[in-house]
Design brief:
By secondary structure, the protein is mainly alpha-helical. The protein folds into three domains: 6-106 and 201-261 and 371-408, 3-Layer(aba) Sandwich (Rossmann fold); 117-193; 285-369, Tyrosyl-Transfer RNA Synthetase (Orthogonal Bundle), CATH 1.10.240.10. It contains 16 helices and five strands. The strands form two sheets. Strands 1-2-3 form a three-stranded parallel β-sheet. The protein has a two-stranded parallel ribbon with strand order 4-5. α7 (128-158) packs antiparallel against α8, α9 packs across α10 and α12 (314-322) packs across α14. The model has no long low-confidence stretch (mean pLDDT 93). It binds tryptophan. Tryptophan is lined by residues 8-12, 43, 46, 209, 212-213, 221, 223, 227, 230.
């Protein structure tokens, strides 16, 4: 008998799945299939919220599914599918939009980061006159907002509830003017934040994620630490829905992976595809070696015999994840005494990682040679997910008074 609580998680089809994804989440996905009912998907509806290559998306989605299976996920022990194959995800997103406060979405750091990065990239791409125009626009809107702030201050200072108590018309006019100014300021600031050009879809990303989880009434979500804020939003949405329409949804909590936060090879930011500081789970040994070669180590080790400090070295922390206890103890000692160089240490790490990943690569090769295994798994997963999703949606439509059933009860 499996635990009653359902598990849900998703992963982006954004290309290589890396060892950070693997240790931070997917290994946990696999473990949980032994004890819980698990629903996992490759989230292509999320992937299209940023600029993407239409031609490449299908193969990335396929590779995403294939890689999770290669990592050990058995599609007979969970529902594994592609998000866009179950349209209820987007339907529930719309319904959740009606209970989600704009303010909560504006606080999402991932949205702000992505919008800002897109603005930066757009600026970087522009040259000469176009760049000048863009910078001028940034300055014009920022300055415009500042000027309006001055006028807003004057309006606010003039707002005296006691003096206007006997003249409601004048008060109303004042409030309207203040409101208009605030609206214009907000619009102009959006340019500087990069959010004026971001899509509604990117803004709504966390609501779609909440719909993913709650469509299956899942309460356990194995994901990396960076997703905590999105899970907070998921709880807020569930809470607001339940308060308004009745107790339908559970509160979701995050399940930590074996290594919740894996640093990238630059040694200071999280391992991520977009920062190109990662080792892919399907990387061959020579690629692992060339990836590790320039990787950041203990800055105190300038020469081979300088004594090192494994506790501050990101390479050592990777050893702890991939090498056995005895090897780690030996490397710790040799590093402190300055008898092993970073080059050797990295080579040993490459071997350990390669040993770990070799079976995953083999399974991936096998699946790539037999794509029907993957496609059949997806068809079954979609059926199972679709069935659960259908049940939840009937309940949700009933609770909200929409859908054909609502009219039958008139
Ligand atoms: N946003 C998640 C990420 O980037 C992916 C995701 C989408 C997800 N929907 C989800 C994770 C639902 C957990 C549950 O990693």
């Amino acid at each position: 008998m499996k635990d009653q609580q359902r598990v849900f998680s998703g992963i982006q089809p954004s290309g290589d799945i890396h060892i950070g994804n693997y240790l931070g989440a997917i290994k946990k996905w696999v473990e949980l299939t032994a004890t819980h009912e698990c629903v996992y998907c490759v989230v292509d509806d999320h992937a299209i919220t940023v600029d993407y290559d239409v031609k490449q998306l299908p193969s990335r989605t396929f590779e995403g599914v294939l890689t999770t299976m290669a990592c050990g996920l058995d599609p007979d022990r969970c529902a594994l599918f592609v998000q866009s194959h179950v349209p209820e995800h987007t339907e529930l997103t719309w319904l959740f939009n009606t209970v989600t406060p704009l303010g909560s979405l504006f606080r999402m750091t991932q949205f702000k980061d992505k919008a800002r990065n897109a603005l930066q990239r757009a600026l970087d791409k522009k040259q000469g006159g176009a760049r000048k125009t863009a910078l001028h626009e940034l300055r014009r809107t920022g300055m415009g907002a500042l000027a309006l702030c001055d006028e807003l201050r004057i309006d606010l200072e003039a707002l005296n509830p006691d003096a206007t108590a006997d003249n409601p018309m004048a008060l109303q006019e004042q409030v309207m003017r203040i409101n208009d100014r605030m609206g214009t300021i907000l619009q102009q600031l959006q340019v500087g934040l990069g959010v004026a050009d971001a899509s509604c879809g990117l803004f709504d990303y966390p609501v779609l994620q909440a719909a993913d989880i709650l469509l299956y009434k899942a309460s356990l979500v194995p994901v990396g630490e960076d997703q905590e804020q999105h899970l907070e939003l998921c709880r807020e949405v569930a809470e607001r829905f339940n308060r308004k329409f009745g107790p339908v949804f559970p509160m979701a909590t995050r399940i930590k992976g074996e290594a919740p936060r894996i640093l990238g090879l630059d040694g200071n930011q999280k391992m991520s595809k977009s920062l190109d500081n990662y080792i892919g789970v399907l990387d061959e040994k020579d690629r692992i070696i060339s990836r590790l070669k320039p990787a950041f180590t203990d800055p105190a080790r300038l020469r081979r015999d300088d004594p090192g400090h494994p506790e501050v070295c990101n390479i050592y922390s990777l050893h702890k994840l991939f090498s056995d206890g005895a090897t780690c103890a030996r490397i710790d000692e040799e590093c402190r005494r300055g008898t092993i160089g970073c080059f050797d240490c990295k080579n040993q790490l490459a071997t350990a990682i390669d040993t770990h990943l070799a079976p995953i690569r083999e399974r991936a090769d096998h699946l790539r040679a037999h794509p029907s295994i993957v496609l059949e798994a997806l068809a079954t997963g979609r059926d199972r997910a679709g069935q659960l999703a259908g049940e939840t949606m009937r309940e949700v439509r009933d609770a909200m008074g929409i859908g054909p059933q609502a009219l039958n009860r008139l």
